[in-house]
């Protein structure tokens, strides 16, 4: 996975005007129009009135806080990540690092039940809390995927969501904790304004649902090369188009590159659900987005093949380029 990219010189002046914030209670046709536009132009948007209860959110936040407040020795008993479990600073196995610690879990109840034994003094409660949260955000992901299918004028509105609902889906759940920055912990050779919490990357899955606390740091990369800061909001969810979705839509939707800066005086916590298909699911542009004028940009590949490529590369690498049709470059 990849070395953090240097900050473009112009990023200091970058702002986030027009970053879409979409009200999910809007009338369906308007909602569809806004989500399509956001997926095509940014590969990112925020949603409000999402219907996920504050209680479900609060309970999973508390479980995260309880774990990350443990001693280093206690937390290490839940690691090292392989790739699932507890990790600290190391991101993947190819040399990428960040100023964070995290829990990464498979998003299925059996795996969560097993992992919870090393994560909590009350494994049963931890499992219930995390599974309840995953169910809610999975429903949100599927709702958004069905709306995009509608926007692409696909008769089978579940063409994308059924990949995520497959009983063998490879979705995962992650909690990132970025400790607050203080004078004692900062590398004196590092510019505190560009201290990398999690380096530049795109998400390989279909779609990501992220929620964070009220601490900033998340930035997305615009098409003109500017890093746009995303204002923190604990009552909204961030939606990211992933690599697999870009391939499925033949590049019509953009897999957004993003990063997190760890320059806050307060700790940042983010909770993510990465919606992925099963390992043997075929990823290729759907027929409705391919034509003589717009031929298929990507050769067919399985999610398992793509996942293997992801784990073999650096965080910032453009992994999807490996699967482009060589006749169309």
Automatic annotation (TrEMBL):
EC assignment: 1.14.11.13
Catalysis: reaction(s): gibberellin A1 + 2-oxoglutarate + O2 = gibberellin A8 + succinate + CO2
Pfam families: 2OG-FeII_Oxy, DIOX_N
Domain Fe2OG dioxygenase, chain residue ranges per copy: 168-277
One of the GO BP terms on file: gibberellin metabolic process
Superkingdom per UniProt: Eukaryota
Keywords: Dioxygenase, Iron, Metal-binding, Oxidoreductase
A GO MF label: gibberellin 2-beta-dioxygenase activity
PROSITE patterns: FE2OG_OXY
UniProt similarity note: Belongs to the iron/ascorbate-dependent oxidoreductase family. GA2OX subfamily.
Matching PANTHER family: 2-OXOGLUTARATE (2OG) AND FE(II)-DEPENDENT OXYGENASE SUPERFAMILY PROTEIN-RELATED
Protein name: gibberellin 2beta-dioxygenase
Organism: Penstemon smallii
């Amino acid at each position: 996975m990849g070395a953090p990219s240097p900050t473009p010189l112009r990023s200091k002046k970058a702002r986030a005007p027009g970053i879409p914030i979409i009200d999910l209670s809007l009338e369906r046709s308007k909602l569809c129009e806004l989500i399509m536009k956001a997926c095509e132009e940014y590969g990112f948007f925020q949603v409000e009135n999402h219907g996920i209860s504050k209680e479900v959110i609060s309970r999973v936040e508390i479980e995260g806080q309880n774990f990350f407040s443990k001693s280093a020795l206690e937390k290490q008993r839940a690691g090292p990540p392989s790739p699932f479990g507890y990790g600290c600073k190391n991101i993947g196995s190819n040399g990428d690092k960040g100023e964070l610690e995290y829990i990464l879990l498979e998003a299925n109840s059996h795996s969560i039940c097993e992992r919870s034994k090393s994560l909590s003094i009350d494994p049963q409660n931890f499992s219930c809390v995390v599974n309840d949260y995953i169910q809610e955000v999975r429903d949100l992901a599927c709702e958004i995927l069905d709306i995009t299918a509608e926007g692409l004028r696909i008769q089978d509105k579940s063409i994308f969501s059924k990949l995520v609902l497959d009983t063998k889906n490879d979705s995962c759940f992650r909690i990132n904790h970025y400790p607050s920055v203080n004078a004692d912990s900062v590398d004196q050779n590092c510019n505190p304004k560009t201290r990398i919490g999690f380096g530049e990357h795109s998400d390989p899955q279909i779609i990501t649902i992220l929620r964070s606390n009220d601490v900033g740091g998340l930035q997305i990369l615009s098409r003109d090369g500017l890093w746009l800061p995303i204002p923190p909001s604990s009552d909204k969810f961030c939606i990211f188009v992933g690599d697999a979705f870009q391939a499925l839509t033949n590049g019509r939707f953009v897999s957004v590159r993003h990063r997190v800066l760890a320059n806050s005086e307060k700790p940042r916590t983010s909770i993510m659900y990465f919606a992925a298909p099963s390992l043997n699911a075929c990823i290729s542009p759907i027929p409705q987005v391919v034509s003589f004028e717009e031929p298929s940009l990507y050769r067919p590949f399985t999610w398992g093949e793509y996942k293997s490529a992801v784990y073999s590369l650096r965080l910032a690498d453009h992994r999807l380029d490996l699967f482009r049709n060589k006749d169309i470059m």
